[in-house]
Amino acid sequence: MAKRKLSKQQQRRIASQQENKIQDDKLQLDESSTQTARIISHHGRQLYAETENLEKIKCKIRQNLGDLACGDYVLLQQALNATGESQNVVVAVKERTNLLVKTGFAGAVKPVAANIGQLVIVTSLRPKPNPYLIDRYLTSAENLPAKAVIVINKVDLLDDETKKIAEDLTRLYQNIGYQVIYTSIKNNIGIDELSEALSNTTSILVGLSGVGKSSLVKAILPKEEIRIGATSESTGEGKHTTTVSALYHLKGNGIIIDSPGVRDFTPINKSQHEITHGFVDVRKFHGACKFANCSHLNEPGCAMKAAVKNGDLNEQRFNNYLRLVAEFNEL
Ligand SMILES: Nc1nc2c(ncn2[C@@H]2O[C@H](COP(=O)(O)OP(=O)(O)OP(=O)(O)O)[C@@H](O)[C@H]2O)c(=O)[nH]1
Ligand SMILES: [Mg+2]
Ligand SMILES: [Zn+2]
Fold it and tell me: Which CATH superfamily is domain 28-93 in?
C-alpha cells in the first residue's frame, strides 16, 4: 500500500516536535539538578512545567518519553545544549494515578490530562445540555476513577423552557448521587459553591465549546490571563477558543485544569463491564438478571428493565446505557 502523503501542516508539526525533543546522545545532563515538577500546559513544541516552589519553567523533552499530558508529574534536569546554554529537560514521567483521554482524528487516542481527582462536567443553557454527553463523561469519571460534579452555567438565561430542562437534569443527577451546581458569570451565581467543590483535589473542567469553562476559571481567578471566546449568535455554540489544557492553582488547596471544548466525547471503554461500571445507577442491577449473559434488550427476567418499569431506574439513563453499549459493540 502506498504511504499516505503528509500534509504541510502535519510535516510542520512533526518537525517542530522533533525540534523540541532532544536526542539522548547530545544531552549533557546535570543529575545534581534533578527536581520534580508538574506539567501545566503542553502543546506541540511548547511545554511548561511548574516546580514545587511554583516556578514556571519552559522545558524541552527527552526522546522516547511517550505522550505527556497536562497534570503529569515529571522529573526535570538541567542540560547544556549544543551552544553551551543551559536548558531544562523533562527526563522522566512519574507513574500516573489516571489519565483522561479522548478520541481525536481518525480514532486516535489523545491524552487530555493526568492525575485527575475530579471531573467537572460543565453544561449551559446555551448551548443546551446534552444528557447523553453528560452520561458519557460520567462513565469516564467512574472508570478513571475520579469524582464528578455537574455544573449548569449561564443560569441568567433561564426561561420557562430552560428552567424545566435544568430542573429535570438536577433531579436526575442528584437522585443518583452527583452534586449539581448552578452558576452564572453574568449574575455572579454559584461561583463560591463551585470554588468550594474544587478544594483539595485536581479538577478538570470539561464540556462543549462555549459553555463557559474558561469564564468560570476566570471568575474564580480574576488575575489569570485566560481567553474567553464569543459564541455563535444562531446556535450558541462556542468557537473552540481554548486550544490547550492549562493548570491553575486555587487560593485554597485546589488545582483546576481548563480544557479545550469538545464537539463530542466518546469515552474509551475496554469492555462492556466498564460501561456498566460507568453508570452508578445501572450497575446496582448488574448480575440480578435471570440470564447471566442478559443483553437487557428483550430477555425475560431482566432486572434492569424491571427496575425501569418500577421507577427504580431512570429510563433515559438506561437508554443512554444501552446506546453506549450498542456503539461499543459496533466498533
Ligand atoms: N449569559 C452568560 N454568558 C456566559 C456565561 N458564562 C460564559 N458566558 C459566555 O459564553 C461564551 C463562551 O465562554 P468561554 O468561557 O470562552 O467558553 P468555553 O467553555 O471556555 O469555550 P471553549 O474554550 O471554546 O471550549 C462567552 O461569550 C462568555 O462571555 C454566563 O454565565 N452567562
Ligand atoms: Mg475555554
Ligand atoms: Zn438484563
Answer: Nucleic acid-binding proteins (2.40.50.140)
